[in-house]
Write a structure and sequence with these properties.
about 60% helix; mainly alpha; flat
């Protein structure tokens, strides 16, 4: 286990515990089974559990010295190049896009574009990216809008359901 992994894991445990504690302190809304206190409580608990798994090295094995393995015939080379490093700018760029476009385009269209661009940037083929970009925003919309009663922007595509 490397020290940076343990430090990162413990930091995530602390951050998750703080978020869960903050959610636990929020008062529930009378008459509603799911109030504003549930979301930070669940997310914080999950973050703390993931941080604990990272800190303890659960589910991950790595060696002290990495072995250099030559590429076999037909095997793809790892991505490199000038634009490869720009992928780190993708999450903040997509977040800014969502903030700017969600009210105009609506949640479904904006989220579909974000899911498609993200999955394509991570190397998924369009046969996987396209169905994922269609289904994920609809499922998220149904969960948040219908189950949790969180209003989402309708934009160009108002959903009657």
């Amino acid at each position: 286990m490397r020290l940076p992994d343990q430090v990162t894991g413990l930091f995530l445990v602390g951050l998750g515990a703080a978020a869960a504690y903050g959610g636990w302190l929020l008062p529930p809304v009378p008459g509603q089974p799911v109030g504003p206190n549930i979301f930070p409580l669940v997310i914080g608990s999950g973050l703390a559990l993931c941080g604990l798994a990272i800190a303890l090295g659960i589910g991950r094995t790595f060696e002290e010295e990495e072995e250099i393995v030559p590429l076999e015939a037909g095997q793809a080379r790892p991505p490199t190049g000038k634009l490869y490093g720009l992928r780190a700018l993708l999450p903040p760029a997509l977040l800014l896009f969502y903030v700017a476009a969600a009210d105009r385009l609506g949640f479904i269209i904006t989220a579909a574009l974000i899911v498609f661009v993200t999955s394509s940037a991570l190397g998924a083929r369009w046969k996987l990216s396209l169905p994922l970009a269609v289904m994920a925003p609809i499922v998220i919309h149904l969960i948040f809008s219908k189950l949790l009663r969180v209003p989402l922007p309708a934009g160009l595509l108002p959903m009657p359901w």
